[in-house]
Amino acid sequence: MHQHRVIIVGAGLGGLTLAHGLRARGFDVAVYERDPHPDARPQGYRVQLDEPGLAGLESCLPEHLFRLGLATAAAPPARVSVRDRHLGVLTDRPTGPSSDASDGAARPHRSYAFNRPTLRQILLFGLADTVHYGAELLSWERKQDGTVTARFADGHEASADLLVGADGVGSKVRELLLPQAVVEDAGLRLIYGKIPLDGPAVAAEARASGPEANGSTAALPPWVFDSIFTVVTGGQGHPHVGFGPVRFAHSPGLAGPAHTPAVPLDSVGDYIACLVGAPADHPDMPSFSTLRGLGGPALRELAGRLVGDDWHPDVHRLLERWDPDSLFPLRISTARPVPPWEAGPVTLLGDAIHAMSPVLAMGANTAIRDAAELTRTLTEAADSETPLVDAVRVYELRMREYAFPVVAASRRTGRQRIGQK
């Protein structure tokens, strides 16, 4: 039986999940990543996975890596809280009932907060011979025999039965495949970083979810640990602040080497992921090019101006603990729905096709769901010896049905809560 070859462009969460899923099912897989090495740029901090992201990971990863992922994740109360700037509760709801999983099976609801760099290290394990760095895609060409050839900036060429664009919001694959696809500036700018919870007193108090204000623990209000994520909003069109606690069930730096087989993971202390966001046209918000040029202390000072004096003192105390060295800016984008296109030997997953506002925490979940869905359809085609293009057609139809309503819901919620366009 012919061994199908798949090229994946982009070594993010979705692309790496797909690589594991396809390799486990006998596909010849190569991942090409334009970054020169895994730590070439900030990858963010906390990422929340619910269903179907967790179901997608479970179906694609080796069982031992999935177990390690859960062991090194945090499991705060599976609730999302929205409060006003005085900390009055506006909404407080569970993260949601279990969505239909990639394989259609009903599962009890699960919700975890992962440290994104740790999860990416886990996903990279076992793929050393599969991921190629410093490989910037320039173009691809469909051949008469139905295969596709990718060309890279270093002069390298690679051919495959299928090329998958998992290369994010600025996807080169999407640009070439669907030039009509539009990714819009959502009109939001974020300053993102983390509040360390290191030190025995701080860590013990945080784990108890009931710290008292004394000494070094004075800036740890209990409410920040009551939900998997808390949004404090100044009102529609005004700045907002988000807090997501990450208190590891097992320290990654200890759990990875103790795992069988051993997986090298960086040591990471407990922290609260923290962001301050505002509309791009807020009078205190500079242009994004200027924002990108600011160092950590300047970003923290800007955030302090965005969060006014009339906000609850707890918010200011938390921001005072923000690690300036962890801060970086983000520009939020959102995709317009794309009408159906003709299926072929090139397809897309994740932000490359359905970028969305982070307000519903569904971007990574949906990208991983894509990976599981594509793995399933390609495997069924290979097993039945039918053309892969048939599997791509089924995947793209299904992906459009579940992904673009999530994009729309994220846009609506972003407009209501935080002034997204």
From TrEMBL:
UniProt-recorded Gene Ontology molecular function terms: monooxygenase activity
Region (Disordered): 89-109
Entries under InterPro entries matching the protein: FAD-bd, FAD/NAD-bd_sf
Keywords, sorted A to Z: FAD, Flavoprotein, Monooxygenase, Oxidoreductase
Domain annotation FAD-binding: ranges: 5-177, 338-381
Pfam families: FAD_binding_3
UniProt key word Oxidoreductase: yes
Protein name (database record): Monooxygenase
Organism of origin: Streptomyces xanthochromogenes
Phylogenetic placement of the source organism: Bacteria, Bacillati, Actinomycetota, Actinomycetes, Kitasatosporales
